[in-house]
Amino acid sequence: MSRPWEATRFAGREIAPGEAVELRLAVSESYTAEPLAVPVTVVRGARPGPTLFLTAAVHGDELNGVAVIRDLLIDQDFSALAGTLIAVPVVNVPGFLHQSRTLPDNRDLNRSFPGSPAGSFTARLAHRMFEDVIRRSDYGIDLHTAGGDRANYPHVRADLSDPRAAELAAAFGAAVVIHGRGPAGALRRAAAQAGVPVIVYEAGSSRVFERRFIDLGLAGVLNVLRHLGMLDGGPGRPPPLRLEVKKSTWLRANAGGILDLKVALGEAVARGQVLSVNTNPFGRERSQLISPAGGIVIGLTRSPLVHPGDAICHLARLGSRDVARWRELVTQNGGTPRGAQ
What we know:
The strands form 3 sheets. Strands 3, 4, 5, 6, 7, 8, 9, 10, 11, 12, 14, 17 and 19 form a 13-stranded mixed beta sheet that branches. This protein is an alpha+beta fold. It is built from 7 helices and 19 strands. Helices cover 23% and strands 33% of the residues. The protein is globular and about 65 Å long.
């Protein structure tokens, strides 16, 4: 969308071209009636260009994205920026402070967009973010990790039926892209319905900083900024293999017990392959989890103890040819999945 290139107002503050401002966006109040504010950095480029938002910690215990935005703001020279960058490193401030996925009303913020000005605590926060950050942007990147006791292999999620979202996903440079609109109430789905294409970067586990995944996320964000012409220079080297996944499935334990995983994140698996074995405390095998299709492991539980129905393995389903290509690439890179990224 086209906007006159002049000063813009954000959270009551006028921001001139070439200016970077750190703000506190008031979104609610605490139990003691103190203002609850979300930290936002707005970088207004000296030259015209698109507006890109970056969000992290929509789930308050997902920290890798916080570090991606922090590193970007600390290390990147924005003096030649074209357009406007709106960076929100911690969206769910209460959850971040208490290392909780949800908000004080126990709702999931990423199932609450576009929110409501007269709704629950969570709905009001979603509404404020949606109106003040998402609607005024042209594009967005939402940074996440796995939740709970899970870990994600680095990948991008995007609605590949939207050419603009597909373009962002390709520019980011992830080796694995999962197609989908996202669940109802998700930030990216609500944003898309408002005409703002958003991609999601998923990598790692909650409550920790994982440098490899942070560096990959930062490189992807810079790739997008360069692709959009907001920063000078071309994108980094693309991955040697890029796979688009149309279907993924969480596979669940058939029985409770002590879990012995037989696969790793990023590993290529074949149909019929044993993914995990459950035993009782005496060591006797109780059940095996068998892969129903070929694909790549993009998510795993980190818990060694499981109940029946617990999610064990997130499988990105692929055809045999793509599985073989991925396995060959991993072998060429020393037999570790990280070489494929």
